[in-house]
Amino acid sequence: MKKLLYIIGLLLLFLFLTGLTQIGGIVLLLSLLISRKIKKKIKFKTSLIFLCTYLLFTFMVVPLLAPIFGREKIKHSSTISATNYMTVILNRNYVRPEMNEFLNQTAERLEDSKIEIKYLDANFPFIDKFPLPPHLSHNDGKKLDISLIYKNKEGQITNLKKSMSGYGVFEGPTKNEKNQIKICKKRGYYQYDFSKFMRFGNINNELTFSEKGTKELIDAILKNNKLGKLLIEPHLKQRLNLRNSKVRYHGCQSVRHDDHIHIQLK
Question: In the chain, N or C: fewer CB atoms in 10 Å?
Fold first, then answer.
């Protein structure tokens, strides 16, 4: 019975780590093999081996192998960076080279503003169609989530965000705007605001949504011909007066998009 429980637990951990990082399950198995080879008794031996092996793979091995699958890490600059560095550690920061070009061109259009591109989940480094939970479509290197823009008490644009993860703090509809959230949940799509559980803590509570800054960011994105579509919640599309045909609604089967912008290449 103990052995069965161990196998079940190991399988669940394998699936969890694979869904979280893509490589975590494989690294887990490799770490168990290495741990068995090392006969010396060391406290937390397997955990330490896993951590070291995982970091080695993440920062040394995976970046070398990803181009074989047509992907590369998002290239950071003074104006392009991860909202939360855990995105990088979890290998959720891989895109096709065209996306890096796209981001650089967008950043150039924003160089006279104070707006920086803060990205959230992108894609895993390997294999098209490999799911990136909890996202439905981040599986081909062409998709990327970008944080909204906020302002401080003085009304100045800031690149700070309102949650630890960058997700889950919503800019909900006003009374005069379409409430797609209510519509979807009424239809039984209870997962629609699931991302509120992914914030991992609120921060910078004094910040408020910047319509001007977010509109400027989106306008810069829409000027790029490589853009296939941009997904955002209907009430924000209405509020920001976004009339470009590439600005679309993602559907009730997804999660709400008033805490981030989703972009994808053609």
Answer: N
